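Side project, low priority. Logging it here so it doesn't get lost.
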Amino acid sequence: MPDASTASSQRSYAGEITPAEAWRILTEVPAARLIDVRTQAEWVYVGVPDLAPLGKEVALVSWQLFPAMTVNAGFAAQLSGVAGDRAAPLLFLCRSGVRSKAAAELMTSLGYGRCYNVTDGFEGPHDDTRHRGGKAGWKASGLPWVQG
């Protein structure tokens, strides 16, 4: 059983989910939204999840602004315009799961009750050759995606 400090840190957002779990939630829960918090450059050149088979679209809201990579001060306001119901699952995705975790924590602190971080993000961690996209993440899980 986790101690009080662990339980407290676990409540900072709803938790970690795999890309496959994210797809299941998006399939089963009509109000669920996938929010890709990467930069415009990543969306264009690397690709984005394709939710067309589900009749949905990915919300594209950058956590950091390219090229300076400063935190987007308007993130919460931009997202609130597309997030919808505060009780609906919000599934946050970035390249590897770091920026999306920060976004899930922020939106939870602002009253959105079911914010999840998609573990390993769109491309996953580096492999042995320092490349992404081979072992984990949305793309490696075989989920639909499109490129630029």
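Brief comment: The domain at 11-146 is CATH 3.40.250.10 (Oxidized Rhodanese; domain 1).
Revisit when time allows.
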